[in-house]
## 1
Amino acid sequence: MTPLGILGPVHLVAAVVGLSLLTASLIRLYRSEDGVPTRRLASAGGLFMAIPFALGWAMYPTYRTQIKPGLLTEHPGLVTAFESKEHLAAMGLCCVLGGVGALIAPEGLGAGRSLLTTGWMLCVIAAGIGVAVTWVPSL
Amino acid sequence: MSASDGLVTRRRAVAWALLGLTAAVSYAVQTLYAGWTSTGDIALPIATAHIPFYWRFALALFQGLLVGSIAFLGLSERDCQRILDRIPVLAPALILPLAGLMLVFP
């Protein structure tokens, strides 16, 4: 089995778990007046989002040399979409990191909510592009 | 919690928020600048010997850490509150258009 074959499913599962935890923490954040108790859940979401990001870093060199050349010939649009996915995931993770940190203080609830929501949106778009990039070439 | 503990906590919250915001904006600006100054050949990332994505992300995090550290060390209580009040509007207003630009110009 190739490294992509092993790391790919872990990358997918960690991303799904991370997005689910982030969604749950955002729902709790918008329902409560105090963000501090939700911080642990949001931290877990951030941690699980960092795992697929780190795995993506590990898989990227293999993807670049083994998959990207073929994809570029057959589906050039998907290659650019894949690059956008990486960029959105990087920005999303930065926002989630800032949002989780802002929840340390009760006064940071608004900033934390805003950064986590922005990060969540970027990660959802990145996940959608990731699914499309994986799914379309197999059609 | 004493007043000074509260201020330290608020400063930490501002520092983290600014770290995340700065890193995200820095990453987007670096990527868009690289796209703007490149030849526009999408095959180029395959041909290059190194992966600029790693460097950009590391530099963005470093700049975020720098801004966060300065904020943690130098902000007064009033400034902390002012920044925390503005980030809810500032974060999506800055980041979402940049993310949209990166979708249009990858």
## 2
Amino acid sequence: MNKKFADIVIRASRIDRRHIQLVIVIVSLAMLILGIGAPLDGGGPTRIRF
Amino acid sequence: MILLAALLLGLLAGPALALGLRRPYRLPDPRHLCLVPAAFLPQLLVVYLPVGREMEPVSAAALTLPVSLVVFLIFVWLNRRIPGMPVVLVGLVLNLLVITANGGWMPVSPETASQLPGGASPSEATTGIRVGDKDILLRPEDTRLELLADRFLLPEWLGYRAAYSLGDVFAAAGAFWLFASPPIMSNLNGSNNADD
């Protein structure tokens, strides 16, 4: 169990900080674009109903 | 979906251009990034979660979009020097204007909504109700700044139906440019430096 935990910690410490920043920037910019836009999607899994 | 498509296209075009121009691809590096989740959170609660979706259009929920867009506006203004951000800024201002002028929701006419899957015919439509995520059904004569409302439709041959506003067009173009332009800008800067 301890060995497994140590293995996870070692793997996590190998993740490049720049990769995490990259993901944060992409997710934030996606939130920005989704947040400012207001299209009414009709085709797709969520159909409008009124 | 159409906004995400523009973003993904930019994310594909940027690295492809970088490869073609033999430049390293670097994503934009915006400042004050913490403002983005702060602005998105109210929308997540009222627009995207089931609890918020059931809220009446004339309620505290009506304040959510304008407040959220103002926080986004601060973020975009602080990062206006990033290529693509001025285009995003135009889209944001246009959507903020029409949403604020129409009680906090993006107006869509019964005629436009009726052309989307699941939409009732204009004569049967009840105006003043929320439709989709951020829209409210309003007749064109009751809509302020109708030119900026969700009045455009994707062409039928695309096989995907959506109504969008002029602000959405700028937001999508800005999103594409944000991700696609870094190698072009880096190439231009490189050429300028070479001229020096």
## 3
Amino acid sequence: MKNLFIAGFLMLLFSAVSCNVQTDKKQPLAASSGNDVEVFYFHMTTRCVTCKTIEAEARKNIEMLYPEQFKSGKISFTALNIEEPAGQITGQRLGVNSQALLIVKGDQKFNITNEGFLYAVAKPDKFRDVIKEKVDPLIK
Amino acid sequence: MEFLTNLLDSSSMPWLTAILLGLMTAISPCPLATNITAIGFISKDLEDRNRVFYNGLFYTLGRAISYTLIPLIIFIGADQFKFSGFFQRYGEKIIGPLLLIIGVFMLNIIRINFPGLSGLTSKMETRKSWRFIDALLLGMVFALAFCPYSGVLYFGMLVPMTVTSASGLYLPVLFAIATGIPVIIVAWVLAYTVSGIGGVYNKIKVFELWFRRVIAVVFIIVGLYYIFRIYL
């Protein structure tokens, strides 16, 4: 029994360290479009209730707060699975390899993942305010 | 959860933030499942009340070791993003099959005898101190089973607070104690309340074999829960 626990622990720890060493490549941040605001939500294949709520709330808020800009393509919302090739490529470009909620414009990048996990379920109004606070200066 | 979020918002003290993050982690689905499994594991020694309680403490100490080791490795120089990405991706993928294997071994469905090692193994299992190490190792392994929500609380909030200076390394210990609080409380109740009821001790002795089987089934069910969540 003890050996099983030790094996499990070491397997996780050493794999993490070796994974860390193998993939140490810097990727440029430059987004595809410099003047548009892009909101990216990266998720895993396995998704919790909070993870799904963050995507739904963020998408809804972007569409509601900026309806004209959303229609014209000045602001976009994209949800990507970080475990699939498309998500991995975009994730590498933006320096992300786990779940994340990012607001990007050119070289500017705001990571509001923590706020998403704290507020999307418990305080959706506060989550909306955080999005508004970050996007408003970028969209003007 | 909303209450804890409100407290977290108003907290300006790192030690309080660490405890609140730990409590939020403790009641999130994945750590809750591993904690329930841990309670099953540590309650198998119910005939020795002190050992049950100490097992609960050693389990929490195991969690503290893992939770402190990760920021320490990051503090030394590992890349935080890649490290956290790995655990959030693979932590819960490994824990499901591992629980299933442990459960099957506990049920004695499969017996593997390594030549020359069986005597040594049985000696180890009869030694009392190894049981504490079992609980400690269980805590260390279970702490690494990060789910999306607990992963963000730990890697997104606690680790950045911790790695800013070496003096922050006490924070994961507080976080770990908070995540282990449900196990410590249940261990205490089992040790000093349930096992103290007249006649329970004898009944436990009689049903010990069944008790172990039930615990093995708990491991298998929780293992299957993870496997179904992730692979199916």
